[in-house]
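Incident review: delayed structure delivery

Summary: a single-chain prediction request sat in the queue longer than the usual turnaround. Root cause was a stuck worker, restarted by the on-call engineer. No data loss occurred. The affected request and its eventual output are reproduced below so the record is complete for anyone auditing the incident later.

Affected input:
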Amino acid sequence: MIKPKLVTLHISYEDWGDNPDDFLIDLEAFIGPEDEPGTEVFYFSAISPKRLVRVIEDDIELGRGLLISSDFNLPKIETKIRQLLTNCHRDNWDETIKAIWRYARWESES
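Output delivered after worker restart:
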């Protein structure tokens, strides 16, 4: 059984409004098999409810890869991603990637 692990999490983009409860933060999650080298990059966006309302006023937003939170707390986000990964244990790495893909955007998406 392949168990994915979060190796590192990087902030790739930050957009803060006038208040701390108005943000959009893009994150790169480097995820690999627990007992093997190598990682794949998956993308998440942490967004506040206030910002989400503004985004959907003019457009439709798909939910995959969105982490909706009233405050930006990187340790809490890391914990949530690790929790999601416990649902992604599979027999091989390709199937594990597909399971993670349900929650995040994958670097190899076209």
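Verification: Strands lie at 4-16, 23-33, 40-47, 66-68, 105-106.
Action items: add queue-age alerting; document worker restart procedure.
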